[in-house]
Amino acid sequence: MSRVAQKYDVFQAIADPTRREVLRLLSEKELPISEITSHFTMSRTAVAKHLHILSEAELVSGRKVGREKRYRLVPETLTELKDWLAYYEQFWSNKLTRLKYIVESTEESEIDNTPDGRK
After folding, report:
1. pTM greater than 0.85 (yes/no)
2. DSSP state for residue 78 in the 8-state scheme
3. Tens digits of pLDDT across the chain (119 residues)
């Protein structure tokens, strides 16, 4: 009985701060695992596990170059995350606009309530 490999989604993959840092590193250029590992205090095996999860989520891809495997960011996959965040950006924009209105209304009402009409 063969086990189907678990497919990670973008949200699971970016949940870990180490994986987010790996993505940041790969956003600058394609890197071999040895160079990625040099940025962390963990073992090469641990970094490989993080790269596996990022690969399963299709956030990075690897290709063989000689004896090493080089990894690169696949930014198109981040579109799912961008779309999801866009909804909440609109939500916060609306909330902040409403808060601004409330604060400005409160300030105006405080000015109107002073005996001489000043602060």
Report:
1. no
2. G
3. 334 445 778 999 999 999 999 999 999 999 999 999 999 999 999 999 999 999 999 999 999 999 999 999 999 988 888 888 888 887 777 777 878 878 888 766 666 665 655 55
Q: Which CA distances in Å does 35 have to 32, 43, 47?
A: 6, 12, 11
Contact 30, 74 (CB under 8 A): no
Phi, psi of 81 (to 5 degrees): -65, -45
Instruction: Write the CB contacts of 4 (distance below 8 Å, at least 6 apart in sequence).
Output: none
Q: What's CA 115's distance to the chain center, in Å? A: 52
DSSP class of residue 73? E
Question: Burial, 61: exposed, middle or buried (Cβ in 10 Å; 0-12, 13-18, 19+)?
Answer: middle
CA–centroid distance for 44 within its chain? 23
Specify which residues 60 forms β-bridges with.
73
